[in-house]
Amino acid sequence: xRKNNIGRLEEVLNQIxxxxxxxxxxxxxxxxxxxxxxxRVNFPWQRIRDVIEGVARTSQLELEDKPHANETTKD
Amino acid sequence: xxxxxxxxxxxxxxxxxNAPIHLETDSKKPLVIFIGGTxxxxxxxxxxxxxxxxxxxYENDLLKVKERSxxxxxxxxxxxEAANDNDRLNMSVTLYFEHDxxxxxxxxxxxxxxxxxxxxxxxGNVSVEIVDRxxxxxxxxxxxxxxxxxxxxxxxxxxLPNNVKSYFxxxxxxxxxxxxxxxxxxxxxAIYRVVDLEIVRNACEHLQETALWYGRRAAKSAKGExxxxxxxxxxxxxxxxxLKTKISDIKRERQAIKDQIELIDAxxxxxxxxxxxxxxxxQLNKELTQNIENQKVLKNQMREEAxxxxxxxxxxxxxxxxxxxKEKRAKGEIPKHIRETFFQDLFDQEECICGTExxxxxxxxxxxxxxxxxxxxxxxxxxxxxLIDLYHILxxxxxxxxxxxxxxxxxxxxxIELEKEEKSLLYQIQEIDSELGELPVEDVKVLWDQRKxxxxxxxxxxxxxxxxxxxxxxxxKKLKELDDERKALGKKQQEAGAQHxxxxxxxxxxxxxxxxxxxFAEKSRKTVEDLTIEEFKEFVISSSGYQxxxxxxxxxxxxxxxxxxxxQRLSMGQSQCLSLAFITAISRVSRKNPxxxxxxPFSRLDHSVHAAVSQRLPKLAEQTILFLIPEVEWNxxxxxxxxxxxxxxxxxxxxETMRQTTLTEVK
Lengths: 75, 667
Known about the structure:
The structure holds 2 protein chains of 2 kinds. Helices cover 72% and strands 0% of the residues of chain A. Chain A is mainly α. In chain B, 60% of the residues lie in helices and 16% in strands. The radius of gyration of chain B is 39 Å and the shape is elongated. The relative contact order of chain B is 0.14. The chains are: A mainly alpha, B alpha/beta.
């Protein structure tokens, strides 16, 4: 699949320290670019939420993993 | 993107299936030139390129700007032939281009076509209706296959700067408009769209909205106290977002007002009755700005002096201490012990104070005795040295304090003078304003009333902006408190916690992006400004007397050698060069190297700048396509400069009887 070209927006992404936030912003930029190319009716909110959802799930998994790690240490 | 060739069928004055028109260029010859008189089909070819790329979107533009429907472009001869034979007919444009993308240089073509049905009424008038339309973008693979690219606009947006048809495919009128006074909104829009500020701003707003959406979901799934906190948080977040929107609306309104005032000022300046007053007012405003700047400098200097003069409060005990030290010095209490330098002197002379000569080397009894004495005196004299230093410091301190007090008084007087001058300048400006308002010339009065009305509104907006910005600070603080509370409570309720996490991620992303946006916008503005200045200098030799700037509110400013605003004084040619310089700058910042297609670039230019502009045009982009009028634009001055950089030069011919355009390539 062809790579999505975000050009000079990469400069903004490079300044974001937090990996999760960077992933969200990258995803949202892509949604914005493809929306700009349409007739601009009905903004795809669900696609923005999908981006957040993806990152949130990873965060939740990380949170769930943490207690296990502690338990292992205790054992 | 580099255009390769265009194929036209029954479009405007291009009858039937025309032979491909070659548009390819190379780095040494980046120009393609079409030369044709008025009505010969230059603008139709320009429209054909736009239509092939933007289809229905361009049709809407045609309707708005030229009040022409796309079917009006159907070739007349082809239409009457089809109507006579009762046949359907095609109107199409196919544009071939290359793009150097992730997979190297690839060839593409984009085709816009309409299938049309002619209809004759009883009177014999022929009309036409669209039966079918197609807009296809295809890639020609290295194997020669033609693969369809489904998302045409997305692809074009990726390889071309946004809104390319507005800023890179344009005519003489359009470029003239960008540099007119009062057009900052248009300049700002160009920067927003072409260098992607729009994407960052929209992403920020949409993330804020998404944070709100998750906040509401969290509130719904929360129970008890958490539910209340979530609701309060959602409401506060909404209030904060509304405030941000309001603040940005106010800023936009102020910008529009500023543009209107600039336009009115430009008009007032042109009226002979107000010219002298306006010039005087400009001068006073300049003096006022300088005065405020001087006050700032003086106040900073006063701050520094004040910190020193402040020591004056301790002046009495300091003098007392100094006198005490002075007295001890006079009595010989300090320095009481023999100092190291004294011993060093004896060692250098190799002669004791009593006259005994010795060798300044270990083993000599006099030297050894003196060294032993030196060691014992060393520590004691260090403390005394500090006291002596303190004595000198205290002596200096008094001088410094007294000097600072004097300086402070002088500077205070300076500030008072400057404040008086500021009041006087403001008064004089007000006087001129009321004089302008009372001029018995109807035009002036109307214009002045309009100006005053806008200025009053601007003052209201400034006050409103300050209030809203204060409110925003408060609401940010409150949000932080509520967020801490809901975080603590949210941990106890799983579902609400999950929604809360999403809301937080969206808000955090929006906030970070919001912070980065200002920097990104400012950096983009500065880069566009630098490149515009650079390009404008290249363009016009006579520009050296002018200084170009892209102000923080995105106005293209031109200042003369006295620092006065001179945008309205630019000649038509200079102003067009400024626009071209700006367009070239945004093209470079976008890093997408779009081709420039310019219809009649010299049409509004004074003949005196033809040479400079024609020398610069070949260097503006990797590929530039020009549509020129013979003699007026393609003349003795421009031809030598342009032709050596032209890969193809086409002469356009128009057959009046057949109403058809044909092209001949000039070798």
